[in-house]
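Async update (no meeting this week)

Hi team, since we skipped the sync, here's where things stand on the single-chain job. The sequence we agreed to prioritize is pasted below, unchanged from the tracker. I ran it this morning and attached the output directly underneath so nobody has to dig for it. Comments welcome in thread, and please keep replies under the output.
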Amino acid sequence: MNDTDSRSALVGRDIRKTFRRDSGEKVDALSGVSIDVAHGTLTALVGPDGAGKTTLIRLATGLMLPDGGDLKILGIDVAAEPQRVQDRIGYMPQRFGLYEDLTVQENIDLYADLHGVSLEQRRERYSRLMDMTALGSFTGRLAGRLSGGMKQKLGLACTLVRAPELLLLDEPTVGVDPLSRRELWNIILQLVNEQGLTVLLSTSYLDEAERCGHVAVMHEGNILAQGGPHDISSLAEGRVFLAEPPARQKARDYQAQLLDKPEVVDAVPEGGRVRLVVTEKIKDEIGKLKETVQSGSRGDKETARQEDSAGLNIVATSTQPRFEDGFMVLLKAEVPGASPVSQSPSLPVSRSRDAPIVQVHNLVRRFGKFVAVDHVTFEVQRGEIFGLLGPNGAGKTTTFRMLCGLLPASEGMLRVAGADLRRARASARQHIGYVAQKFSLYGQLSVSENLEFFARAYNLRGTQKDRRIDWALQHFQLSAFANLSSGNLPGGFKQRLAMAAALLHEPETLFLDEPTSGADPLARRDFWRRITALSQEGVTVVITTHFMEEAEYCDRIAILDAGRILAQGTPAAIRDQASRGPGSEPTMEDAFIAVVEQARAKQAQTTAAGGAA
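Output:
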């Protein structure tokens, strides 16, 4: 064993893996990847869909064999002795195999049995795992009745019951709300920092990469760069600005405008402004026109004012780069044509804003004695983007299903586009487009066949049907995949197909239930570029998301928990409910966590007072 093998839990040299699609086309999932993961460290794999992250992790588990190269896990050649490797590692895939009709305790016992964990070992490990995951009070609850975050923690507990030497986590926080995500990360950091466990994980959340000691940025089967998070962030040094939107222009509309500029690497709404990453050329031009911010404004940073050749006025304040900025610079520089910009769809929707298009008043939904939605009230104007945020199990999806006419309300009033959903759900659905939380199209049907099916379901016939299908294929760049089964589409294109199907009948209102869950940053940029264009055309959008930065695209948001609205207003008004201390502006995630925790603490006090009385 050489020095590298002894220092590293995972050593990969020139690893290659090729797959064949249904069409017979070869796809290089890994094209000569080399990577070291040192003992006792936390390493992240990040990159767009199809980068090879999951393939690399599955090779490390011995579930697949590489086509070429060398891969050693804990000093063992995984291709030669996969079982020896599997006896010493823990692996949590994106969809961990919990048994939903078993309790929390029964699931843990089952995995302990499978891995031969002795009774003595269980006594020691169970207590530690229950304390770590805070599942001790829920051991008798069925796994199927746990929230998404609790299911992830149970999956992690089942993975750790054997005390592995290397832990492999594939997207462990996908679909998890910010509170649960924070809890999961506290567990992961405790495992690494206090117990010295080696962890290799993949993630779609680039802010999570900043918590790791080592990061590998992957794209199309290659590692573009690896090192500490700061090494990636520094690629954007001096090129990141916070740009002020022109008067009377929304930040998301300004962002869409900036994304179309070739000198712009990336742009996202942030705190009412647009976070802008630019090319070296523009950075230098802005630098020549710097003017010092006057006393009493935003600190002693410098503001740059520049009007480019297209007449776009930029008023920007320089700011420090973060990991996501460097990630976008890396992709734009290293991969020709890598860009989130895409042709945007448009729909012929009325721009009249006389009355709210969505009206919800005292909406209630009960399942037996359980109240899933508890007197919820809100309105959405035509052309608005309205966000419903909340922890797993808050009642967002139940609210959506009632708004789409898929689930009857127990009480209250709800109207969409003038139609009363309590009396005429079928007719109301003609005005509604709905994209479900999970990919809900027919995976065995091709892209064209799915579009054909949904067009007919929406009563589209003849030339109108053909025109709308052609529109969907063109505007969502699906033409190249028209004959591919939708189940084999890359994740980002599955989301495009789902949205295309929802828009075939030109609905006035679009309901999107966590549509970007698990999507990579490029796919999320592409998605929001389209949503912004739809809003500009007068389409009303109601959306749920666990990416708190996506709330910045919304005109207004409501935060739910336990079926009730805790806060409602513009993103700026919600952010004002949190504070990060002097000199630091709160993020939407800070505000979300503060609102939910304050409400839960108040409820706990009320319950305790009632019990004492």
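Quick observations from my side:
Residues 287-302, 338-351 have pLDDT under 50 and may be disordered.
The domain at 358-598 is CATH 3.40.50.300 (Rossmann fold).
Reply here if anything looks off.
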